[in-house]
Design brief:
Keywords: Signal. This is Venom protein. The protein has three helices and no strands. With 104 residues, it is mainly alpha-helical. The radius of gyration is 15 Å and the shape is elongated. About 5% of the residues have low confidence.
């Protein structure tokens, strides 16, 4: 029962996020980076989210998470990998190592 609720929740969050992000496309056009580093970081993350979510939706034929929880988790993993690979130069402060938690 929990996995079904989790899958529904992930699907709902992805749906809301996709609708909300596509509304902000004017702020972050593909291929252009804004002047401020903070805006560049936000745009890079949004571009990763759009690209990976659209790829997954096209591949699956439906919103990731509708079929199973694994679809949603796989899509979120791909988005995270994209952000880590492409956005570190814009989001340096957010990706620095956390020494306080390395010993745990």
């Amino acid at each position: 029962m929990r996995t079904i609720l989790f899958a529904i929740l992930c699907s709902f969050i992805l749906l809301l996020s996709l609708r909300g992000i596509h509304g902000n496309d004017d702020d972050c056009p593909d291929g252009k980076t804004p002047e401020s580093l903070k805006e560049s970081c936000k745009c890079c993350k949004m571009n990763c989210w759009n690209a990976k979510a659209d790829e997954a939706a096209n591949e699956l034929g439906h919103i990731p998470g509708e079929g199973s929880e694994d679809e949603a988790l796989k899509t979120l993993t791909l988005i995270k990998k994209c952000v880590m690979d492409k956005c570190t130069k814009y989001c340096k402060a957010q990706f620095r190592p956390r020494p306080f938690f390395s010993g745990m």
